[in-house]
């Protein structure tokens, strides 16, 4: 049966995906190897590609291709013997129409201005963080806020401005639903924090070379294919896919934090192995919406699973202890390693935070950006409000902007609405981990036996392979038979505290 319109739409999407991968490659280079003086030209490049991508994603040609493919699908539906194919194609059309309507409402000039503001914002943030001076970043931050609020107004009349900006990261998210998810955490975590022993953190470090060696050994332990995955350094760790069979991970070495790079590598591996398991990587849905990640909440659940449920487990410390010793670690045994890597204590840095306090870091950021986008909080007051809320929730106060409001890259790229994905990822990870153990056995036992392939196989078949065929909440229901709840994560934290103390 001929699928002329469908194939034409597929060819158009593939060209768009190629342009998007070029954009991602430039972003990767900007973060890992580009000389500082290349920033101005890189801004021009990224702005140009953003303009071309928006033109393609909002053009009449694209609209007609979607419409023709939809009509062709309806006309040929009776010829398909497998109803799943029809369901998948309809889902692709539904997602394409939704994104097209979002893009069509945007002023092309606004798209160009945003692309330029993001590139310049990132460069100014780097300088401001290095000098610990928020004032350097402030004018660019104000511009990003203004442009993104305008973008939200142009896109949606259904959702509030902040909800609109959050939709690409977590489709169907509303503030009411988010508050219901996060309120139990806001009520519970501070009391759990007050219950832990205020023990001093071990003061030791590993050389940058040793940390790099351990990261490499970690990826080998997990089964990394070096022909698929490349690792580099960047100011802020991230994972990115540049195309089928091209996955990139970055990490960073932090002086005085011997586990920082190691945990970041585990975290980004979780993102990367998820991307490797998506339907797009079999080329079935390459360039189609169905081949993309379900949501960033699900994405973060995968990275947090590898970082927290795997690397921070007792079994992993036992299994990996000798490798740490070989690289100069002076701890006496694997239990000391486990306690050190799981040290529970309020700190200023989100990326270095333990499982217990991490949620409070996210709550602060989420509430601040909602107040910026929808409330009366002014950008110039962010340092004061940031420090104030850290003192209220975590009992600590940053001494400068670099360890405070300038520590994260997200706002410099205009990524408002992203931060909740991290905490939703914790909730999803805890709930699916419970189901995994019911299905294939205790995670600690699997780690002790080095059965990472078994873990990855379960994740791929229950999570990765579904892509955007369902939304995140439906995916959680399908896997666990329950609605997403904060209960599993809270219980996990309580267990960790009991074990630790």
The helix-strand sequence is HHHHHHHHHEEEHHHHHHHHHHH
User: What spatial order of strands do you see in the largest sheet?
Assistant: 1-3-2
Classify the fold: give the CATH topology of the largest domain: Neurolysin, domain 3
Class inferred from helices and paired strands: mainly alpha
Index terms:
501 residues, mainly alpha, Neurolysin, domain 3, 2 domains, three-stranded mixed beta sheet, 3 strands, globular
Descriptive notes:
This protein is mainly alpha-helical. It has two domains: 4-166, no CATH class; 175-500, Neurolysin, domain 3 (Orthogonal Bundle). It is built from 20 helices and three strands. A three-stranded mixed beta sheet has the order 1-3-2, sandwiched between helices. The longest helix is centred in the N-terminal third of the chain and has 29 residues, at 4-32. The radius of gyration is 23 Å and the shape is globular. The N and C termini lie far apart (65 Å). 40% of the residues are buried. The mean pLDDT is 93.
